[in-house]
Specification:
Strand content: under 5%
CATH topology: MetI-like fold
Number of domains: 1
Strand order of the largest sheet: 1-2
Radius of gyration: 23 Å
CATH class: Mainly Alpha
Distance between the termini: 44 Å
CATH architecture: Orthogonal Bundle
Oligomer: single chain
Shape: globular
Length: about 290
């Protein structure tokens, strides 16, 4: 009986195991190998040692891409986490029709990046964009957003667009974390005279720090892998300079436009190292502010 069960276990695990090797382990091994070669898809790979890494690490485009990813991650993670906490608290209220509002805020996360990018290309337009028209009523602007010559404004605008798309999804994680907070704790705080703002910053935020930490890790991963929105916005928003390139676009350009597979592979490992360092820093500081009890 046990042998029969073992055979069925192997049978059902086989598809996952095969896909793991074919789509994960083998590509990683190939990526490591190609990063030490000169390869253009048409000629056999030629071993060049650390030349690709030297070129990548001395290229200004690489450091500009890492800079852009860093700023994008800072703006995206900060706004996304804070707004997700605020929205999660709002959606946690026991009011009629709350499920409808939860669905409405979640819908943007289901939209494809290409569609969202095309929509925001119009919204960000400095001449007829509705965002600048609204800001004009407040006496602000007009802002250039993704049409700006400032890389900070372009990258920050892209991050804000990503927040609009993803904050509803992130708020669901916060909402789940809020379910673990005892109502007795909040009621006791109210009796002691704590207002909504005090309860939010002194009670709710500290008690959902594990959720916040998880959202930060997810945000870093999303920031490094951002591609579709930059590709569409750079193509339709009038921005063509490498000043605004992120790592994924730099890898794509080297691999599929310039046929530099070796350089693209080396860039992938540089990106992995970048994420590893940031994640290590986050993990080292986790014990100082994340409370699991």
């Amino acid at each position: 009986m046990l042998k029969k069960d073992k055979k069925w276990g192997i049978f059902f695990l086989a598809p996952y195991t095969i896909s793991l090797f074919v789509y994960t382990i083998i590509p990683i091994i190939c990526l490591a190998y190609f990063s030490f070669t000169e390869y253009n898809l048409f000629n056999p790979p030629r071993f060049v040692g650390l030349a690709n890494y030297t070129d990548v690490l001395t290229s200004p485009d690489t450091w500009r891409a890492l800079r852009n990813v860093g700023v994008y991650a800072l703006v995206y993670i900060s706004l996304n986490v804070f707004l997700a906490c605020v929205l999660g608290v709002a959606l946690n209220q026991k009011l009629k029709g709350m499920k409808i509002f939860r669905t409405i805020y979640f819908v943007p996360s289901l939209l494809p990046w290409v569609a969202v990018s095309l929509i925001f290309t119009g919204l960000f337009n400095p001449v007829y964009g509705i965002i600048n028209q609204f800001l004009a009523v407040l006496g602000i602007g007009p802002l250039q957003f993704t049409f700006s010559k400032s890389w900070v404004e372009v990258v920050s605008s892209m991050a804000i667009m990503a927040v609009w798309k993803g904050v509803g999804y992130a708020s669901l994680y916060v909402l789940a974390g809020l379910q673990n907070i005892s109502e007795d704790v909040l009621e006791a705080a109210s009796i002691d005279g704590a207002g909504p703002v005090t309860k939010f910053f002194r009670i709710i935020i500290p008690m959902i720090t594990p959720t916040i930490f998880m959202l930060m890790i997810f945000g870093l991963s999303n920031s490094l892998s951002v591609f579709d929105s930059f590709l569409v916005m750079l193509g339709t928003g009038g921005v063509t300079s490498s000043e605004y390139t992120v790592m994924s676009m730099l890898i794509y350009n080297n691999a599929f436009q310039f046929n530099k597979i070796g350089t693209a592979s080396a860039l992938c490992w540089v990106a992995v190292a970048f994420v590893f360092v940031i994640t290590l820093i986050q993990t080292k500081t986790e014990k100082r502010w994340v409370h699991y009890e």
